[in-house]
Each structure stands twice: as structure tokens, then as C-alpha cells.
Specification:
single chain, 490 residues, alpha/beta, four-stranded mixed beta sheet, 15 strands
């Protein structure tokens, strides 16, 4: 059955809906859901795995009229746009935790399609505030941008409220984005993994330090990218040192966005959106009710779900490998040609199998061909398990070789898990793979590649540079004065 979604009511809601569909994908992002009493639950709800993101979007143009009493205008703007929405966000969480029904329309004709595991759910509440960007930027010549300054402390109710500065409660943290940094946050942390990892790191910092203050959310994003925890192998906010207060200075985002480090990351990530386009195509089919097969993408048991879990830098590596496999597909007149690749996931125990098939003179119907291709993909996924017994899960992707198929093509996705990898099942696939011989031929090639969030700069050798052979008893070229064998040649 097709699912009809709202696209947002106001211009700012429509912007939020578009950004969230790009970041969290269409299958998991739903604008304007409703409660069982017909009232709107929130402005946008994202449910993916154990993460539930509740967005409230509010705009108030009070400051467009250049009010004489800025303090009074600020108090009224803050009450409407921030305080009320924070209270409503907490109410939306309570509503969901009660297990009450959620609908996609006010008439309650379409139930929210994704079940929520209330025992294991992590809630993230986000208020998006509009209407003070220019006023905030003009409030002080020291302001780099038009972002709201924010502090998380022990008791926000007794803290003074200065214009364009928010004191938020650290015991029940709600994230506040604004017109200046909404697109920065959702465009730079543009996967469900990256965005929720950022929010988790921020909440950890709020709980670890008595005060966390910053001049704009975009500065926190820059701080997060540049602050890496080598022990836990992830980005973090703040410090593990015993400091009561951590302040993130203004202008960190501006400096970061103008750095070579940032430029290299953005350039490297361009190829990763091939992965996103594949996900969006399949998500659209699921929403339209035209997705074939027996997968259950709304219940989480699907190849699509695991593909969407991948962080941005992992998608980059996967997409680069797939695009190279497509470009390297052999040009031959053989009646049937296939090429299969095995790629690791970000998640241990999970791998991807990418299968391309080219049929020179197809005698089958399109449906028959697709069934054969799907069967080949299933065998290839099982063959990966036969070759590498430690694999716990395989996500298979099959397509007609894009290098030769033109603009018209189709994709098959399969999820294969091995909790019940019995001797009978193993024997079945060993027999099925005898003719196809996936991952069992002498032509197999193995490559290793390290993918990092920030790629290192490429080192180009000068043209026409002469190579000089240096012996181990010659002076070391590093200039130490020692022989090579005693210095860098150890």
C-alpha cells in the first residue's frame, strides 16, 4: 500500500522536511505526524532503529520591525519560539513513551508505518528557531554569524535571559538549531549515524561538564569534527579532563569551513552520494508500495535498513569501490559476463556483495532475467559466507552492468543472515555454487584501502624527477649526517 506523507506546512517546515529527507532518507522521515486526538504531535518525526528524533520548527518575525525595547522583544520571542516548543517537545516524548498511536494525517487514516521499540529507544529533541538571524548578527560587532549563543547549566529557570543567549537545562537537554546553522548541521552530519553520533557526543559533554557554552551550533559542529577520541575511535565534544566548564569559541566553524582539511573531506565525499541515490530510489518504491520481494523495510529487516546505517565516510569507500567495479567491468562478447565484489561494512561481521551481470543476447523476458539475476545474487551472498566463515550478515546488490545497460536499469537487494547456518543450508549453497564458482576462482583480486573522515593530502611527484639509488652505507637523505642503515633505513 502506498504511503502519503506531508511535505511541511510553512516554508521553514518544508525546508526542514527537505533537509531531513536528504539526511535521514525518505523512508524514515515524516513531517507533521498526528496524535490519536487529531492534534499534531510534532513538526517532523524521524524513527530509525532505536533512535527517535522529534523536531519542532517555529518562526517569529518580531525582530523584523526593529523593536525599541530589545529586551522585551527577546523575552516574548523566546517564550514563543523556544520555551513553548521545549515544553511541547517533552510532551511529545511522553506521548510516544506511553505507546499511544501516531498517524500521518489528522483524519487518522494512515498509521505511522514504523514500529517504535519503547524499551530501547533513545529520544533526541530538536527545536529549530527562526526569526532572529539578522538581529542576532547585528547585536554586537563581535558576532561572526547570526547564531544563538547557548549555555547548558544546572538550573536554567533562575538564569538571567540576555538577548540572543539561551540558558538551557542540562538535566533534560533539548538541542536548539536556528536559521544560521540548521543547514550546516544537517548537511555536514548528513546520515542517521553521523547526526545521532553528534547529538550523543553533545549530550555526553553536557552531562560530563557542569556548564557547556558556545556561540553557535555551527561552532560545536566544527569542534566535534576536529576533536577525536583516539581510545574510543570517535569524535567527541569537550574534554575528559576534570573541568566544570567548557566553552567553544565563536568563529570555529568559519575557520574550519575555510580550511584545506574541510575542502578535502567535501571533495572526497562527493562520490558517496551514489550510495544515497541508490537508497532513495528503493525508499521511493517502498513508499509507493511498488517494492518487490519479501523484505520488510519499515520493520528494519531489510538490506535497505543496513545500507542506511552506514556513516558518510564508509559510504564513500563503498561507493568508490562500486564505481570502480562498474568502470572496470570487462568489455567482451561472451554471451554471459558477471563480476562480483566483496566489500566490508563499517559494522563488524557485515559485508556487501555487489554483482553485475551482462547478457549479450537475452532470450528471457525482463521478469525471468531478473529472477535469474536475483538467484545468482543469493548464491553469491552465501558463497561469501562459505569463503569467509566469520561473516554474520551479507547485504547483496545486483544490477545489469551499468557500463553497458544504458539509462534503463534495475537493482535487486537481498539481506542474508546466518544465525541458522546449519550444515544442511551450507551444503545446499556449496552445491548451488559449483557451477557459478563465486569467490572460488583464480581470478580473485584482494585490495586493502584505509578510509578516514579526513583524507590526507595527495603527494604528487615532480615531473621528470630523476631517481637516485641510495645504498645503506650512503648518507641518509634526511640530513642527520648518519648513514642510511643507522638512521631512517633501520
Amino acid at each position: 500500500m502506498a504511503i502519503s506523507k506531508s511535505v511541511g506546512v510553512t516554508p521553514t517546515e518544508r525546508l526542514l522536511a527537505k533537509l531531513c529527507e536528504d539526511t535521514f532518507l525518505k523512508l524514515w522521515s515524516y513531517p507533521n505526524p498526528f496524535r490519536d486526538d487529531g492534534d499534531e504531535l510534532c513538526d517532523l518525526l524521524v524513527v530509525f532503529g532505536n533512535d527517535v528524533l522529534i523536531f519542532f520548527d517555529r518562526e517569529n518575525r518580531r525582530f523584523d520591525n526593529n523593536p525599541q525595547d530589545v529586551n522585551l522583544a527577546w523575552k516574548r520571542w523566546k517564550k514563543t519560539v523556544i520555551d513553548k516548543q521545549i515544553g511541547t517537545a517533552h510532551g511529545a516524548e511522553r506521548y510516544i513513551r506511553m505507546g499511544r498511536s501516531i498517524y500521518l494525517d489528522a483524519k487518522k487514516t494512515q498509521a505511522f508505518p514504523i514500529p517504535i521499540d519503547l524499551e530501547n529507544t533513545c529520544f533526541h529533541k530538536i527545536v529549530v528557531a527562526h526569526g532572529v538571524r539578522e538581529a542576532c548578527k547585528n547585536a554586537s560587532p563581535m558576532n561572526v554569524s547570526g547564531s544563538l549563543a547557548i549555555s547548558y547549566g544546572p538550573d536554567s529557570s533562575t538564569s538571567p535571559s540576555e538577548p540572543f543567549f539561551l540558558n538551557l537545562d542540562r538535566s533534560k537537554p533539548v538541542h536548539v538549531l536556528d536559521s544560521e546553522n540548521l543547514e550546516i548541521a544537517l548537511n555536514e552530519l548528513d546520515t542517521i549515524f553521523d547526526f545521532t553520533a553528534y547529538l550523543d557526543a553533545k549530550v555526553e559533554a553536557i552531562q560530563r561538564h557542569t556548564f557547556l557554552t558556545y556561540c553557535g551550533e555551527e561552532d560545536v559542529v566544527a569542534h566535534y569534527f576536529l576533536n577525536f577520541d583516539n581510545k574510543k575511535k570517535r569524535h567527541m565534544i569537550g574534554t575528559f579532563d576534570n573541568f566544570d566548564s567548557v566553552h567553544i569559541g565563536e568563529g570555529e566553524w568559519k575557520d574550519f569551513a575555510n580550511s584545506e582539511l574541510y575542502v578535502r573531506r567535501k571533495e572526497a565525499n562527493k562520490s558517496s552520494y551514489f550510495w544515497d541515490r541508490l537508497l532513495q530510489i528503493t525508499s521511493n518504491n517502498a513508499l509507493k508500495g511498488t517494492l518487490e520481494g519479501n523484505s520488510e523495510p519499515f520493520l528494519g529487516k531489510s538490506a535497505l535498513h543496513f545500507m542506511a546505517k552506514e556513516p558518510r565516510f564508509s559510504r564513500r569507500g563503498l561507493a568508490d569501490h562500486i564505481l570502480k567495479s562498474i568502470a572496470d567491468f570487462p568489455a567482451t562478447d561472451a554471451p554471459i559476463v558477471r563480476n562480483v565484489s566483496l566489500m566490508p561494512s563499517f559494522y563488524s561481521g557485515t559485508v556487501y556483495v555487489f554483482l553485475q551481470v551482462k547478457v549479450q543476447c537475452m532470450s528471457q523476458s525482463a521478469q525471468e532475467h531478473r529472477e535469474v539475476r536475483s538467484t545468482m545474487l543469493e548464491i553469491a551472498c552465501a558463497a561469501a559466507k562459505l569463503k569467509f566463515p566469520d561473516i554474520e550478515r551479507v547485504i547483496g546488490i545486483a544490477t545489469d552492468a551499468p557500463k553497458f545497460s544504458g539509462k534503463s536499469n534495475s537493482e535487486d537487494l537481498v539481506l542474508m543472515e546466518f544465525q541458522d547456518w546449519s550444515a544442511e543450508r551450507r551444503a545446499h549453497y556449496e552445491e548451488a555454487n559449483k557451477e557459478l564458482r563465486f569467490f572460488a576462482t583464480a581470478q580473485m583480486q584482494k585490495t586493502k584501502k584505509t578510509i578516514t573522515e579526513f583524507p590526507k593530502p595527495s603527494i604528487r611527484k615532480p615531473r621528470n624527477q630523476k631517481r637516485v639509488k641510495i645504498g645503506r652505507n650512503d648518507p641518509c637523505p634526511c640530513g642527520s649526517g648518519l648513514k642510511l642503515k643507522k638512521c631512517c633505513g633501520r
